[in-house]
Amino acid sequence: MYKVNPSVSLSGPLPPKWTKRQLLVLIWPLIIDQLLIVLMGIIDTFMVASLGEEAVGGVSLVDSINVVLLQAFSFLAAGGAVVCSQFLGKRDNKSASNAARQLVYAVTFLSGLLSAGMLPARSVMLHLIYGHIEQGIMIQAEQYFLFTALSYPFIALSTAGSALYRSMGNSRMGMWISFLVNILNVMGNAFFIFVCGWGVAGAALSTLLSRFVAAVIILALLYCSRKTPLGLRGIFRVHVDGTLIRRILKVGVPNGIEGAIFQVGKLVLSRLVSTFGTAAIAGYAVSNIIMTIGNLPGLAVAAAMLPVVGQCAGAGDNSAAAYYTKRLILFSYAITGILNLAFILFMPVFFGFFTLSPESLRIARLGGLIFCTAAIFIWNFAYCLPYALRAAGDAGYTMLVSTLAMWLVRVGFAHILARFFGLGVICVWISMVCEWLTRGSLFLLRWKSGKWKEKRLV
Q: Do 325 and 443 have their domain in common?
C-alpha cells in the first residue's frame, strides 16, 4: 500500500505513504469483519436455544473455554502479520513470503497439538474449570467440545490467512471469509440441527465444516495468487526457518499470552458478578452487549495499525510510524466517540427491547453509562495504542503492562471493592475504568519515550 514518490531511490526501502482513501479502505472491512464475528455468536446462541436449556448451558461453557484458547492463535497470527508487514515495508517480498510460510507451519503445528490434547482431556477440563456440572449439561458440553476441538487447526489457519492479507493492506479478504463462514454456519446449523436432528453435535459440526472451507479457500488464494507481494508458493516443500519463527514468536507469544490471560481475567470477573445475585447477572449481561458493540470500531482501527505501523517500522521510517499512529488514534476517537455518545442518548430505547426487572435495568443502565463515558475519553490509549507498539516489535512491554493491569487493577481492585467496601456489581466497572487509566498512561509514556524505536524484528 504505497504511494510512490518518484524522487525516492528504488534500490532501498521505500517510505510507506498511506492516503486517506487507503486507510478508509483498510478500516471499513475490519469494522464489518468484527460485526460478523459478533453476529456469528449471536446466531449460534439463537439457533442452539431451540434445543433447550441444557444445550445452551453446555455450549456456553465450552465457548467460554474456546475464547481463551483461540485468542492465543489470533495473536500469534497477528505476530506473523507484523513480521510480514515489516518485510513488506523493506520491500523484501521474498522474506515476507517466507515468513508467511513459517507462520502457517507454526499455527498448524501448535493448533494441531492443542486439538490433540483437548480431545481426550475435554471432560477433565470442564470439571477443572467449572467444578460440579449437572449431568445433562455435561453431556451436551462434551459433544460440543469434541467437534469444536477438531476445528482448532482450521480456525487458526483461516485467522492466519486473514492476518496475512491484512499485512498487505487487504482487509476485505478477511471480511469476505467471515461472511462466508457466517453463511455456511447458518446453513449447516439449519441442516444438522433441524433436518438431521443432531442437536448440539450438529451445531458443532457446522462450525467445523464452515471453518474448514474458510481455511482451504483463503490458503488456496494465497498459494495461487501471482499478483500479491506475499504468497505461499513453495509451502509444500517444507523448510522450517528457525530464525523467522523466533521472530514471529517474539511478537506472537507475548500477544497470545496477553490475550489468553485477559480472557481468563474476564471469566474471573464474571464469576465475581455471579455472587451478587440474579439481578446483577442479568444487568451485567445486557450491559456487556453495549460494551461489545461500543468498541468494535476502535478494535478495527487498532487492527489496521499492525500493517500500517508495521510497514513504516520495517522501512525504518519511525516518523511515519508516529504520524500514522496519531492519525489512526484520532480517527478511532472520532468513531468510538460518536457511537458511544449515540448509545448514551438512546440507551432507554435500547434497553426497551429487553424484559428486565427494575433492579436489573438500573444495573444495566449504570454499567452502560460508565462504559460509554469512559470509552469516549480513555479507551483508545488503553487498547488502540498498544497495537502500534506491537507493530513496532515492542510486544514484551505490552504483555507485561496488560497482564499486570488486568490482574492487579481490574481483577484485584474489583475484589477489594466488593469485599471491603460492599459496592456490589458496580465494583467491576469502577475497576475497569481504573485499569484503562493505568494501561493508557503506561502505554502513552512508553510511546513518548521512543523506546519502541529501538526494537527490530527484521
A: yes
